[in-house]
Every structure is written in structure tokens, then in C-alpha cells.
Amino acid sequence: MHKGLFKRARHASLPWRKAALGSILAAAVLIPASAQALPAGCAALQEKYPDWKGKTLVNAINPHTPGYESIDPKDPSKYIGFDIDLGEEIGECLGFKLTYKAVTFAALLTTLAAGQADIVISDIYATEERAKAADFITYSKVFDGVLVAKGNPKKITGINTSLCGAAAAENTGFVEVPLVQALIPICKAEGKPEPTLQLYDNNANCIQAILAGRADTYINDVNTVDNAVKAYPDKLEKAVAVTIPYSVGIAVPKNKPKFRDAVMAAMMEIYKSGDQLALLKKWGLDPENLMEPGLLTVN
User: Fold this and answer.
1) pLDDT tens, position by position, for the chain (299 residues)?
2) Phi/psi at 113 (nearest 5 deg)?
3) What CA–CA distance (Å, rounded) separates 52 from 118?
């Protein structure tokens, strides 16, 4: 049996602030920088990395992950969330401003590679495969939640053979897709029906698939799952939380190592100052997601 493919996460997620699951904005939107005090080392970084001071860069995002990046329900011309605030502080630390280009999740790295964006800060998991297309500054641990209909009628217990015969709604390009696909031969070997996948462009559509009865589960960042349960407490529940072997990362072009190093240095200042932890708390995200920034690059 393969019931233990992924460990259950041993943490309790904090409540979320309410945020809309709005549709993607096609145009880039300029968000004003925050007025908070910058980490002490940022002035020196602007001297060390002057190339981006005074510039305006483009951040490609998929704004359908409340708590991380979503359309502001009070002003649809703006985006809000942890990643939005984090990107703004990185920009302030290095002296640049950000505009935003909203795309599907699957298009985040291709948009970056095509030169249509300078950076991707959008709750994207850093993997060896993705690091072939971009360099990553990792900054957050990953805990996934397993979203199911209220009562968990299929008795799903994780990313394991309890998914045999279940329909999983997932975002195109998400790392959870191959994890579910890997269960197909295991289910067959045990004489069970294989799991099926329904691919969508954003979190909202995946959640709606469960609400409409088209899908049995949606596996994604635990904070996203917790927020969905909070939004639909009578219809959805989290079956379990599991740990998966990835980190969330900021993607930058592979041909800009100096920019990568500058963003990494800014992230270290933000981490050491306590601002990263403060942003997690501000957006109701679990402080256990906090990790010291690192690099993932593949030649």
C-alpha cells in the first residue's frame, strides 16, 4: 500500500482575511509603494545594485489566490495580498517600482521568458523542472491542503491511493498535477480505478468544480484551501494538510544573475528585519511558512 506518500502537515493554519475571487485583469496596474520603514541594509543595496534604482519593472501574477495575490474587492484596479506587499518592499529596498501583468498560472514563466515581465512573485512553487526556465529565490515553506466537499464523501485522506477513482481539479501547470498522475499506475496495480484530472486556469474555477459536483478534490497551498473553506463553510472542508518537498519562490530571468543576486539580497534584509513574518501575520497566513531565503538554479 502507498498510503504514506506525503506526510501530514503538523501545523494549524491561521484565519484569512476576506478577499475576492475576481476575474483576471488584462491590463497592468500600478500599485503605490507602502510607507513603512525599510530594513536598514536597503540603502547599501541601492548603492551596490544601482541598475534598477528609479526604474519601473513588471511583475507577472495570477491574481486568484486570496491572501497571496488577488483583485482588491474595494478597488478592482488594484491587487492585494502577501506577495503584492512583499514585491513592493523588494522594490522599495532596491529603489524600483512595480506594475503588474495578470496572466494564467501556466503562462507565468513563459511571460517572464518572453521578456514581457521582469519578475514573478505569485505563490509559484520552485521546482528543479521550473528552474530550467528561470532562477528562483525561495522564501516560503510549502504545506498543501486537500479540499473536498462537506463530509468528504470519497473519504480522501491525502495524496495517496484514497484518490483512486476520484476526480481532482487542478490548475494547469501546478506541481500537484504530476503528483496525482503518479498515482495512476499505483491504483492500477492495486486493482482500483485510476484518478482523473480536470485542468483549469485558476483557483476559483477549481473550487467551483467541487461546489458544482464535477470534481471530488482540489489540492493546493493550505492557506488557499483554508480560505475556500472559510468562504463556503457549509459546502467545503479540508480533508487533511500534507507537506510536499518544495518551496515557494520568486522567479527571475536566467540571463540576469545580477538582478537575481539583488533580489536575493533584498529578501535577506526583509527576512532578517522581521518584515516577512509581519506580512504573513498581516495576511492571516501561517507563520510556519516562514523560511530563510535561498536560491534554486539549474544550469
Assistant:
1) 433 445 555 444 433 333 333 333 333 344 434 446 899 999 999 999 999 999 999 999 999 998 999 999 999 999 999 999 999 999 999 999 999 999 999 999 999 999 999 999 999 999 999 999 999 999 999 889 999 999 999 999 999 999 999 999 999 988 999 999 999 999 999 999 999 999 999 999 999 999 999 999 999 999 899 999 999 999 999 999 988 888 999 999 999 999 999 999 999 999 999 999 999 999 999 898 999 999 999 98
2) -65, -30
3) 11
Whose cell is 533584498? That residue is 266
Catalogue the long-range contacts made by 269-275 (C-beta closer than 8 Å, 24 or more residues apart).
269/39, 269/40, 269/41, 269/42, 269/45, 269/93, 270/39, 270/86, 270/89, 270/90, 270/93, 271/139, 272/39, 272/41, 273/39, 273/40, 275/36, 275/39, 275/89
Give the Cα separation of 14 and 93 in Å (integer).
Answer: 28
Distances (CA, A) of 20 to 68, 124, 159, 246, 274: 12, 20, 28, 27, 28
Residue 212 class from Cβ within 10 Å (0-12 exposed, 13-18 middle, 19+ buried)?
A: exposed
| Predicted model pTM | 0.79
